[in-house]
Fold this protein.
Amino acid sequence: MLVEIWSDVVCPWCFIGKRRFESALKEFAHRDEVEVIYRSFELDPSAPEVGVESISAALGRKYGGTPEQVTEMMGTVSALAAAEGLRFDYENVTHTNTIDAHRLLHLALDVGGLDLQAKLKEALLSAYFEAGRSMGDREVLTDVAVSAGLDPARVAEVLDSEEYADGVGGDLRQAFEFGIQGVPFYVFDRQLAVSGAQAPEAFAQALDQAYSAETPTLGVLADGTVCGPDGCALEDQSA
Amino acid sequence: MLVEIWSDVVCPWCFIGKRRFESALKEFAHRDEVEVIYRSFELDPSAPEVGVESISAALGRKYGGTPEQVTEMMGTVSALAAAEGLRFDYENVTHTNTIDAHRLLHLALDVGGLDLQAKLKEALLSAYFEAGRSMGDREVLTDVAVSAGLDPARVAEVLDSEEYADGVGGDLRQAFEFGIQGVPFYVFDRQLAVSGAQAPEAFAQALDQAYSAETPTLGVLADGTVCGPDGCALEDQSA
């Protein structure tokens, strides 16, 4: 089963949801057949590369609350994160662009597969939410990516170029086509979806349901030359 | 776009089809948005690990032809392979099980991603068809996998265990559910399929059609707490 998770590295519900999904997956009988791919979603593509506004200031501006109300709001989210074993400490972090973080997640998928991408995703979320490090800072991104196991030279190459911008764009386009309005958003075998940081029980139900779902009927465009249990076709039917 | 290719490493049409698909992909305008994953398909799960029968003998037994007819048959396939730049030379190779080769392809996907899996897939097909090496032989598999970039210790661990048998089983189960009778079999975004070693034009058409296809409607099971362009939901709706 293929589970695609659209999320952003600066999205608190994405980190909380990650733990809840992981709890459900750990208990899922067919977990060894599940592949998880992280898809890119930029919450604010217009955010600056170098942060100038703290998250609390950005929240205050967005929701129009007083600093005290913002602090309370962040405390509520942090308490829910703590219930999942996460130590949120992002008061002083700044509001930045995440395109480079997403390009590195695509690099990780390409060169290190599902394992390396998952490792980098976790490391980026933790760097941002638990260590208050900026997702727009090249040094931070390099440090986190290299610690996760990526090659420093390839990381530099990607950060110096537009490499993987197409991959990020493809994820965003797919999100748009699925009508995804917010993240985290979980897609199971391109059939079923769960929106948001659900309780583990909801994810467990989705895994069960997707696993036993009717396989969609494929539109077979063309029938050519194949090998099957009874041998190989001898004539090239594509000619 | 996700293209999943079911194939076996001992299937001549899979290698020929690989070149034809690659020709089409190379010309596809959105090729940078295409991810290719190889899925496992065992043509003969009951084949012995250590080959005792040559391919030509197995073909003769299967199709009931004389040795001369079998040689001619193999010559025809080799000529089509040559048209794709492949030098088939598999007369003396033996008919073996391919489960271990498939388990290594799953390892490659896990630890090295799409790139490493693609590299190993190509190397296994070439080892079998162009160098006449056995796919059931541990030394051959180790040599090919390590040359492709896999860690020797991990390769040994996987070959010493049943690791990734679940992953191979999951691919076979999915093939069964899609009604796949023979390989190669190409699935585009779990919507469209192309069966067999088609001409590049057929793959080009499938890529175009899949790219512009209507995105399937997802069944949204549950709506929880998300962050969106306008900010993050403040209440945990999963509670």
About this structure: The CA atoms of residues 185 and 206 of chain A lie 12 Å apart. Chain A has eight helices and seven strands. The first helix of chain A runs from residue 12 to 27. The domain at 2-232 of chain A is CATH 3.40.30.10 (Glutaredoxin).
